[in-house]
Amino acid sequence: MRTHILFDLDGTMLPMDTEAFLGAYLQLLGKTFADVAPPDVFARHVMESSMATIRDQSAELTNKEKFMKRFIPRVGRPEEELLPRFDKFYLDQFPYLARYSKPSPLARVLAQSALAKGYEIVMATNPVFPRQAVLERMKWADLDDLPWRHITSYEETRFCKPSPRYFAEIMDTLGTHPSRCLHVGNDMEEDFAAVKARLPVVMVSDFLINRENRPLTDCLYHGTLSDVTQWFADSQ
Ligand SMILES: [Mg+2]
What we know:
The chain is an alpha/beta fold. Helix content is 44%, strand content 9%.
């Protein structure tokens, strides 16, 4: 019997072109920290430190620690100076990026349908962002006030998608088994990696990312957010 439904956010529960959003985010971040480094250089440091964090499979550090370990030496400013400025950025500037998302009321319908059927819901967004940035995007999607059992953010998570260990870590936190879960995502690399952790995967195709053209038929189900919402209401 299934007990937990894991949802990806960007491009799944928050319809958006993730590439366009990331570009706008890095530009805004670079502009905000223009006194620290030229905007494109600052953005490159963020990107490269994030990519290295995603590849880092050690279990000792959180993603935040993995990120800072690489980022701080690159920019040459103390963490104590930059952290409060990052916090302020996510509170004051980040909300302007809402216009790069295309929220759908169906996301809330799907999450509420899961709750009504007795499942616990998990926000399984790739934890390369601080919690504040995750909560802000959940607000855009009109999902922030729902009773989420767990939300992955970079402060308390040690792995990232597409590592299967990201999903295994969630299983540990929830104290459940992959066969009792379902992961809903939009990326045939990042989200489909859940299969390697033995979770069944449902793919939302509106903003599908499928760089290697993997067959969608390997998923338990695939379709638009509308299709998935209907399928979930009927069958799960
Ligand atoms: Mg996504």
